[in-house]
Specification:
Blueprint (H helix, E strand, L loop, with lengths): L2 H28 L5 H7 L1 H6 L5 H11 L8 E3 L5 E3 L7 E7 L4 H5 L1 H10 L5 E7 L3 H8 L8 E3 L3 H7 L6 E5 L5 E6 L10 H14 L3
Parallel strand pairs: 3-4, 4-5
Antiparallel strand pairs: 1-2, 3-6, 6-7
Length: 211
């Protein structure tokens, strides 16, 4: 690489960093006026093009959607149960976005099932929205694995409505239908068996206080 090429490369990297910083600064000023979806749309390019994901961008997205109303979803589970999230007001909703060939999604199954068991018979609804079809789930997932969430197949349009921030993505929604917490990504080592449980439990416990 010539000196001119090296200089140009450094300039491009500096410019990209400046654009990210400027975007984050702008979002910090306007996020309080944005809806849940507008938070995603404003940050769409960075959320879908930065590789690896930029931690500061993810942090700003999370801050932006915190306290915002989650889009209302019309869902149908693999068993045929129809769910309207607008009818779940008064309950805590835990949403997991995943798909069958997502390695961290599969590794965290024990932690997800532990959450369901922990909050059985309490006002917590667990929804696992998969981008896979029911046929793929029946053939490739259910014979090998167990997920105690209510599983919604064919979730690509739902993910588009929420905004694709990667997989797995986890949302905890409060009784009023507002985002209490959210994060994207999962562990790929032994910690995956407990990580999401340890992260989600204190948040859910806080929301259940007063019952």
């Amino acid at each position: 690489m010539s000196l001119n090429q090296m200089f140009l490369s450094k300039q491009i990297i500096t410019l990209r960093k400046f654009i990210v910083i400027l975007t984050l600064f702008f979002l910090s000023k306007v996020s309080f006026t944005q809806t849940f979806r507008e938070c995603y749309d404003t940050m769409y390019y960075h959320l879908t093009h930065d590789s690896p994901p930029n931690p500061e961008v993810m942090k700003t997205w999370k801050s932006c959607i915190s306290g915002k109303s989650m889009p209302e979803l019309s869902l149908k589970t693999v068993t045929g149960e129809k769910i309207e999230t607008k009818d779940l007001k008064g309950k805590i909703i835990v949403i997991n976005l995943w798909f069958t060939t997502c390695y961290p999604c599969i590794l965290e199954l024990p932690a997800l099932n532990r959450l369901v068991e922990e909050y059985k018979n309490k006002n917590v609804v667990f929804l696992g929205i998969s981008t896979d079809t029911k046929a793929i789930l029946d053939a490739d997932f259910f014979p090998k694995y167990k997920l105690d969430f209510k599983i919604i197949p064919d979730g690509k349009d739902i993910v588009k409505k929420i905004g694709n921030t990667g997989f797995p993505t986890f949302y905890i929604i409060d009784r009023a239908g507002k985002v209490k917490d959210a994060w994207s990504g999962g562990a790929t080592d032994k910690t995956a068996e407990t990580a999401v449980y340890l992260k989600a439990k204190p948040i859910i416990d806080e929301l259940l206080k007063g019952e």
